[in-house]
Design brief:
With about 240 residues, this protein is α/β, with parallel strands linked by helices. It has a single domain, classed as Rossmann fold. The protein is built from six helices and twelve strands. A nine-stranded mixed sheet has the order 3-2-1-4-5-6-7-11-12, sandwiched between helices. Strands 8-9-10 form a three-stranded antiparallel sheet. The protein is globular, with a radius of gyration of 18 Å. The termini are far apart. Bound molecules: 5-O-phosphono-beta-D-ribofuranosylamine. 5-O-phosphono-beta-D-ribofuranosylamine (GRF) binds next to helix 1, strand 5 and helix 6.
């Protein structure tokens, strides 16, 4: 049975589109089971409807409490039976109860090299801090905002003259291949979250990661210290 992905998105959904395109051309062997948003006007919902994928908005203000809104959202998410829930530009904190009930099955893409620059306006945060390297992270979602175990990162050099918008554009260009490369290994079962909530760690092929995987120039993930692309064959001097 196909690996089923549900996506939560609040806005334009360019990361969602990267998933849609990769599924369409076979780079990602998975099925997009449903897309959910807190904003009825989110373009991400249009992208899903355009290809016949169920797309639903759950507006927080329609519910008496945050817990009720979260419970409703996740009832709908559970109904599409996802193997993995991907937050791709979903701009609301998920309730701790719902997150804990789905330990190891929710990931998020965040535009910074976590643990640096959590929260909003990350590109401006990086510029204000004088960072020379910025980037994006894919991490498991835990109840702590942007605080779950990091799976993989893409690094982007800060260039002279960068403003937040220009930097955001370059980071976004790396987010899409980062998300796809990470999803490919999640779908194939190479990456998983091991351990209970308060001691969980990312494993690759059954071994704990000592640091996040890094997206190399060839859009392939590598462990830190490993070449990002296969090394050229050793010259034969015989
Ligand atoms: C991305 O930068 C993502 O990392 C952040 O919000 C943005 C969403 O972009 N959390 P898009 O909606 O996928 O185009």
């Amino acid at each position: 049975m196909a690996f089923r992905i549900a996506v939560l998105a609040s806005g334009r959904g360019s990361n969602l589109q990267a998933i849609i395109d990769a599924i369409a051309d076979g780079r990602l062997v998975a099925e997009l089971a449903g897309v959910f948003s807190d904003k009825p006007s989110a373009f991400a919902l249009e992208r899903a409807r355009g290809i016949g994928v169920p797309a639903t908005a759950v507006r927080p203000r329609d519910f008496a409490s945050r817990a009720e809104g979260d419970a409703h959202l996740f009832n709908l998410v559970d109904a599409v039976a996802p193997d993995l829930i991907v937050c791709a530009g979903y701009m609301r904190l998920l309730g701790a109860r719902e997150v804990s009930a789905r330990h190891g099955r929710i990931i998020n893409i965040h535009p910074s090299l976590l643990p640096a620059f959590k929260g909003l306006r990350t590109h401006q945060q990086a510029l204000d801090a004088g960072a020379s390297v910025h980037g994006a992270s894919v991490h498991y979602v835990t109840p702590e905002l942007d605080g779950g175990p990091v799976i993989a990162q893409a690094r982007v050099a800060v260039e002279p003259g960068d403003d937040a918008e220009r930097l955001a554009q370059r980071v976004l260009g790396r987010e899409h291949p980062l998300l796809l490369a990470t999803l490919q290994w999640l779908v194939s079962g190479r990456i998983r979250l091991a351990g209970a909530a308060n001691g969980s760690r990312v494993e690759l092929d059954g071994q704990p990661l000592s640091a996040p995987l890094q997206l190399g120039a060839g859009n392939v993930l590598a462990e830190p210290g490993q070449p990002a692309t296969p090394a050229p064959p050793h010259p034969d001097f015989s």
